[in-house]
Write a structure and sequence with these properties.
about 240 residues; about 0% strand; about 70% helix; single chain; mainly alpha
Length: about 240
Amino acid sequence: MQHLRAKETLFLERRFIDENLDPLGFETLHDPLNRALAEIVRPLFHHQPVDAHHTRLPGNDLIGKEIVQTTTIMQDMFADADLPAAQKREVGLAIENMASFLEKAYPGIAITVSGLMVVGLVFMLSLLARGRYTVPGRAFPEWKSPEWLVWILITAGFLVAFVEGIAGTFALNLLVILLPVYFLQGLAVIDCFFRRKAFSPIIRTVGYLLVTLVNPLPMVVTGIGVFDLWADFRKPKEPES
């Protein structure tokens, strides 16, 4: 009975894809690569393992396998460490929580990493091709995200805190994508402050490394980016009369 239900579900999914994706202008799913992509995307919405037979890819549930492999390596590393039993249990619990987070937030992490890579490439291009290539729009010290974006961030935060299931997972992925945006806005605020104080490039570089790598400074910078909408930290102070 369960086998028949699984076949029926698979048939309905494929019929929905064929009827709805192709009219929107997507490539036909008869192409092997597009069919493989469809099989990989499907588990994100249905929480099912990747069908290796249809994708022609090795293994089953590729994302899950990578997460399990990584957590197993970490558990083996701490298992050989000379730590008290209670501390080992805490580490094991932390690793399990990390695995659960990665499984839920993998789409958001993938989008965020891809976006940061693009931002890094644009930054390097602007440095190496200075004078021949300029990034359109405001300079980084003046940059800020759209004001309406903060309300999506706040809504996603409430959903993660109080809602479970698909809505909570979707909100978690939104947070994973949006929080780095506000980290960059907070970094823009700090960059503006550094330039107003005329700090040397070396001091600015050290400051950027500290606020990026030293915990909990990244969260503080992200908070600055979020509250910049209301506080407007970069607004010039009016001279006292």
